[in-house]
Sequence to fold (456 residues):
Amino acid sequence: MTSVLEYLAANRQRFVDDLRDYVRFPSVSAQPKHAPDLARCADWITARCRSLGLDAELHPTAGNPILVARTPVVRGAPTFLVYGHYDVQPPEPFELWKSPPFEARIEGKDLFARGACDNKGQHLAHLNAVEAYLKTGTPLPCNLVFLIEGEEEVGSGALYKFLPAHARELRCDAVVISDNGLPSMKHPALTYALRGIAALEVRLDGPSRDLHSGLFGGAVDNPAMALCQLLGKMRDAKGRVAVPGFYDDVKPLSKYERRQMAGLPSTAESFRKLTGVPALFGEAGFTPAEQRTARPTFEINGLTSGYQGEGSKTIVPSWASAKLTIRLVPDQNPKKVIAAVKKQLRALCPPSVRLTITNGHGGEPYIVSPEGPLAQASLRALEEGFGHPALLMREGGSIPIVSAFKKHLKADTLLLGLSLPDDNAHSPNEKFNLDAYAAGARTSAHLWPLLTAAAV
Ligand code: BES
Ligand code: ZN
Fold:
């Protein structure tokens, strides 16, 4: 292990240069014009894996290619699958970036670029650890399979098809993912639960065209007002989702979990400051950490209706629409919750407008026991890598493919997040902390012997 850690320290600058090269590709999966950039980015990461001595195969799909790369076979040893994604969120709005999003800028300990933390830097940290093993001739105690896809930010469509078709060759004892966060450099954490998601679009149609609000307003319903009133009824004054049956399958937090969460370093006030809101709001009876990771929510992501241009226009708009997502927690089921929400929307919609509901993407919530031997081994690796004891936490975000790993590979997922709360994932000026990058590689180096011992 000493030579592996020495190699990581000696090559720190080169690893930063690699990340700089990797973020240069504008691999924006949401925008079709970037398909060639995604292909070139996939070629780059494939070549990087081959240069380390991995057996790497890039699989074409109907969408963006999927990379499968393996370390040299160790017979009789367990296999761990490391998942990551080389696609990134759109960089817009460009004017809010302090430097171009696809030209890495280093300031202090941070490397700024779209994709730096979500997710290029996080899975490169694991590859750097593998390089250190292979280049120092230190035998890896287990088999590693890197599965790196290019559609995570748009729902992992190709991987959902790929996974059942390649389940045998992707067989593993556990999945390891670094595509999430940690509270601070002094508080590394193992994430043992993610929220699920269900997306919907709701549209109310009223008059056959926009009408003069002076001539018609008052005698015909206003779809924008009707939509606000309808959506307003979906949440009560105490911050609870007001849909019959919504909380039926929500697993209550155990006393042990609530104690763990209370021990997390973020306070309600530090969380308020991070967000810039004048006051926090959330479901009564729960702390902010509990509300945003272990309780379900009903969110409006976008609202559209009427005139949005300069000045004013006096109309009753012809229609109004809203993009909604519901974040789910164990043991809620996306289909069941969507059905309950649709039923309530239909029951409360007035006869003065026509309601249309369109289903969007969905993903199940995920939870794994934090007390199992693999989770405990991961906590120890994080402590070694960061030099501080590791916490247990839940996360509010979603990685829908994680429940497909459980279904098709029968494998649990260990989430070792390397992204800090101020890394601006999905926002302008995304960054990755280069100390977290190095600590992530050290964690990964320690992880493989610890996981191997725990798996057998
Ligand atoms: N890396 C995130 C998910 C994440 C972030 C999980 C922080 C836990 C903590 C991922 O790239 C993401 O943004 N997922 C989407 C999924 C959606 C598009 C289905 C999300 O959570 O909104
Ligand atoms: Zn993301």
